[in-house]
Design a protein that fits this description.
Elements lengths: L7 E5 L4 H12 L3 E6 L2 H14 L4 E4 L5 H15 L4 E4 L14 H29 L2 E5 L12 H20 L6 E7 L18 H5 L10 H12 L10 E4 L7
Parallel strand pairs: 1-2, 1-4, 2-3, 4-5, 5-6, 6-7
Helix pairs in contact: 1-2, 1-7, 3-4, 4-5
The structure holds nicotinamide-adenine-dinucleotide.
């Protein structure tokens, strides 16, 4: 099993779903955790669960749509915990909508949380990661590789995140840091809980990207994130690893 004793691991979106599963997986492996989310109650629940089995995590309620808040959070973590070894960008939002109904507010929020926040967090964390030979894991999606009706902002944001991962990996190719992404398919989480399909949605179009195999439990995807962040994955840099039960295979 990968171990993370004396390593500071930052996880965004830790109040729920994959972020929570990732935080719990790192806690079980001895990491010192710094967690954030916009959902204060969910974050407190995750922190309480971790405190039962491990050291209580550093937690902050942060709206990652604000670049200043992203940078401020990283600075606070590095100052309080003495550095950063791993940054896992998990927080994300969906936004099912007809193209005609995409508002500037929706477009800007999806891009801010899914694409821009990982950039600002990475920019702020990189000096700390370089000091310790650390790494970044971005959570993309199978939606980065498939056209998906009614999800134009989401799929565009995830495709951009994959390309950002690769370009950042190239820029730091000669330095002591690794930058990767994982791309889950369908997972059993709350991401769609407050969403409904747009009125008049054509089910035949939706069917084209529906998983055939069962949805994954987030813990399965968290295991891949932990592996990619570990020293055992020293040869993995600039990759986007799919964990999607075959959804992008054909
Ligand atoms: N669930 C799936 O089927 C699926 C598939 C592929 C990729 N993903 C990706 O996995 C990641 C985790 O999603 P999930 O499925 O666990 O959903 P989730 O809704 O359970 O978790 C997302 C978390 O992000 C947080 N968040 C949203 N906006 C935020 C903001 N502005 N600031 C801070 N935190 C914010 C939410 O509060 C929530 O805790 C996302 O990036 C998502 O795009 C999910």
């Amino acid at each position: 099993m990968e171990r993370f004793e004396h390593k500071v691991v930052v996880v965004t979106g830790a109040a729920s779903g994959l972020g929570k599963a990732t935080a719990l997986a790192f806690a079980a492996r001895g990491a010192t955790l710094a967690l954030c989310d916009v959902n204060a109650q969910g974050l407190a629940d995750t922190a309480a669960e971790i405190a039962e089995v491990s050291v209580a995590p550093f937690v902050r309620t942060v709206d990652l749509a604000d670049p200043g808040a992203c940078k401020g959070f990283i600075t606070e973590v590095a100052t309080s915990l003495g550095g950063i070894d791993v940054l896992v960008n998990v927080a994300g939002v969906l936004g099912f909508t007809h193209v005609a109904d995409v508002t500037e507010t929706l477009w800007n929020r999806v891009m801010a949380v899914n694409m821009s926040a990982p950039f600002w967090l990475s920019q702020a964390a990189l000096p700390h990661l370089l000091e310790r030979g650390g790494n970044i894991v971005n959570v993309a999606s199978s939606a980065a590789f498939l056209g998906e009706a009614y999800l134009v902002p989401y799929t565009a944001s995830k495709a951009a995140l994959v390309q950002m991962t690769k370009s950042m990996a190239m820029e730091f190719l000669k330095q002591n840091v690794r930058i990767n992404a994982v791309a889950p398919g369908g997972m059993n989480t709350a991401i769609g809980a407050n969403e409904s399909l747009p009125e008049g949605a054509d089910m035949a179009l939706l069917q084209r990207f529906m998983p055939v195999r069962p949805m994954a439990e987030p813990a399965l995807v968290a295991d891949l994130i932990v592996y990619v962040a570990s020293d055992r994955a020293a040869n993995i840099h600039g990759a986007c690893l799919s964990t999607d039960a075959g959804i992008t295979a054909g």
